[in-house]
Amino acid sequence: QVQLVESGGGLVQPGGSLRLSCAASGFAFSNNVMRWYRQIPGKEREFVASISWNIGSTNYADSVKGRFTISRDNAKNTLYLQMNSLKPEDTAVYYCNVAGAFGQGTQVTVSS
Fold first, then answer.
1. Which of 97, 71, 73 minimizes the C-alpha distance to 83?
2. What are the angstrom distances between the C-alpha of 13 and each of 20, 72, 100?
3. Dihedral of the CA atoms 11, 60, 80, 91 (nearest 10)?
4. Are the CB atoms for 68 and 82 separated by under 8 Å?
5. What is the pLDDT of residues 58-85, one digit of tens each?
6. What is the pLDDT of residue 10?
7. Is residue 61 a contact partner of residue 73, using CB atoms and an 8 Å limit?
8. How many CA atoms does the CB half-sphere of 107 hold within 13 Å?
9. DSSP summary character for residue 12
10. pLDDT band with cut points at 50, 70 and 90 for residue 41
């Protein structure tokens, strides 16, 4: 079955950086569009970024454009999210997504 395991979250100061990873298994990773979402307690999960199967196309939410970079390594079945210039409003649980499946999430907290 589909398994998505996120890692790399943590506590960072405003302006700092983090790199999230998502280890994928149980499906043809290299054939699928992959996405990152995030969720703040009490709010709906929101789209952050996506990347096409052949790495030819990426899309970002306006709120992270220019600060976050999504990438993938199809040889390692791993999805990444490089987050720079982090803001307190980026604080959320970040989820890896393929089709209708989500991982367990990794907490990102941006605070001084």
1. 71
2. 16, 26, 32
3. 10
4. yes
5. 999 999 999 999 999 999 999 999 999 9
6. 97
7. no
8. 5
9. E
10. confident
Q: What is the pLDDT of residue 56?
A: 73
CA distance 9 to 24: 17
Residue type, 105: G
Are 64 and 48 in contact by the 8 Å Cβ rule? The answer is yes
Q: What is the largest CA-CA distance in the chain?
A: 40
CA 68 to chain centroid, in Å, comes to 9
Question: What's the CA gap between 60 and 50, in Å, rounded?
Answer: 7
Comparing CA positions, the residue from 35, 31, 66 lying closest to residue 50 is 35
**110 close to 9: Cβ distance less than 8 angstroms:** no
What distance in Å separates the CA atoms of residue 110 and residue 107, rounded to the nearest whole number?
10
Owner of token pair 């001084």: 112
What number of residues does the chain have?
Answer: 112
Q: How far is CA 45 from CA 27, 31, 38, 88, in A?
A: 23, 24, 6, 17
